Amino acid sequence: SPCSSNPCKNGGNCTDSGSSFTCQCVKPYTGKTCETSPCTSNPCKNDGKCEVDGQGFKCNCTGPWKGKTCETGTPCSSNPCKNGGNCTTSGSSFTCQCMKPYTGKTCETSPCTSIPCKNGGKCKVDGQGFKCNCTGPWKGKTCETGPCTSNPCKNDGKCEVNGQGFKCNCTGPWRGKTCETDPCSSNPCQNGGTCRVDGQGFKCSCKSPFSGNLCEKGPCSSNPCQNGGNCTVDGKNFKCNCKSPFKGEKCEIGPCSSNPCKNGGTCSVDGQNFKCSCKKPFTGNMCEAGERYRIFIKFM
Questions:
Q1: In order of start, what are the domains of the chain with their CATH numbers?
Q2: Helix (DSSP H) and strand (DSSP E) numbers for the chain
Q3: What integer is the mean pLDDT of 159-179?
Q4: pTM, 2 dp
């Protein structure tokens, strides 16, 4: 039946009522299952223990508390002194004798009260002072020192903490880990030219006789020295250091320059001299032999 599970609490009498039940409660209990008593609303204050007493309740008070609901005490009853401070009653007020390093009306002030630890550091009282437990890359007495403290970013770069390290936000044409690199860092100007940053790029001021964006153009740029001669800049002009047997301003003069091979022979340099490749029927060092035969043919 519905009453088999003994639903009525606190001595209530259960009566079956169809498929349900009805509890007849013993005073002072009330409610569907006689679960409500004068102590249900927790009337006893300041840790007082409530017990049902006749038709009402009774509070068993702790410490200095007294009264119907343990509401009455001394100025020290609420333990106003924090952090181990000792409370003494002074008329209708109280006085706290604080343990060092705590101070204040209720010993609420400590070395950590001013929040001395920066950058998310956790402060704890340590003896007469405080100690900061720093997080991440921060260190120092108050966690004030970090990757950006030494101002690692050059040339007006802005430093920000990045994980355990730092990151530089560079300005203008500057780049690199610490904004140390600019368009002139690679020394792009040749032949003694002076580089200067120009906007996001660079510009070369060239020494005479050089020119060009990189001062790469000079008297030797057109390769004026022939026959393997080595070109060097000489003042505002060039000078050719010729390989033997060549000579001349541009090493253009050699054993073949005088066209020594006759009768259509081809001249080629051979060591310090020349060599002729003759057309038939001519022979000889300069293809000079066979001229009589040519004249004979002509007059035939």
A1: 74-134 (2.10.25.10), 224-253 (2.10.25), 255-299 (2.10.25.10)
A2: 1, 16
A3: 94
A4: 0.47
